[in-house]
Write a structure and sequence with these properties.
With 77 residues, this protein is mainly alpha-helical. The chain is rod-shaped and about 110 Å long. The termini are far apart.
Length: 77
């Protein structure tokens, strides 16, 4: 009976060590994922700023072209 209890105790200790190792690994992976998500959010925000700048610039250039076309139409008409 005593030998069986010692075996159970050893198995539980081994299981506990394995679970702790796995939890540490999972926590490291979550930490890496958090870093990656943070970086991607920052990159996406930068891309959004650039896209807004480009579309704003495009809108200004388009308005200038429309003004020139309207002026040419007024002269020709």
């Amino acid at each position: 009976m005593f030998e069986i209890l010692k075996k159970i105790q050893a198995d539980l200790a081994s299981f506990k060590a394995e679970v702790n190792t796995r939890f540490e690994h999972v926590e490291q992976r979550f930490g890496s994922l958090e870093d990656l998500v943070r970086k991607q959010r920052r990159d996406t925000a930068g891309l959004l700023v650039m896209a807004k700048s480009i579309t704003g610039n495009f809108a200004e250039e388009l308005a200038a072209v429309e003004e020139r076309v309207a002026a040419l139409e007024a002269r020709g008409g």
